Amino acid sequence: MSFIEPITLTGRHALLEPLTESHHDALVTAVADGELYKLWYTSAPPPQAMRPWIAAALAMREQEGALPFVIRDAGNGRVLGSTRYFHVDANNRRVEIGHTWLAQSAQRTGVNTDAKLLLLTHAFETLRCIAVEFRTHFMNRQSRAAIERLGAKQDGVLRNHQRLADGTLRDTVVFSIIESEWPTVKRHLQYLQQR
Question: Which regions form coiled coils (predicted)?
Fold first, then answer.
């Protein structure tokens, strides 16, 4: 059995299910809600690039480098976006949570917090991870604030870390939650769910 296996995770507001090609149309609808792909500092794919984006995510899964999910509204089943485990390091029991994007109508609802609670619970309590990492573009202040609200701590900034498709250089902000912090972070996320 490999370190990560496709799994469906169900929470109060979010349902995470393994990404498949059949999610294409629903993901196109979700990414068009708010035109997330127009934000230059995000990785949300434009509608016309959704098929290659899905193919790349599934290829990462086959190489055991990722476990991509679609995010559904747990109440009505509507696809709201995507997230994944990646940079999976089974030897050191670490994963990164990222490639997350949500339809604008689902932002600032309980969906993202619930999705992160599901992923973190699975990572720490089933996979027995010692650390879970998050990374975002330095200019993506909304994402940085959301990661901090989860209870993650900033580890540092990787300057000139990546070249983006438009040729600009990305400074990447790295956050993590470590195993000893998980009980407190979990309690905090459960509290946020009840508000």
Answer: none
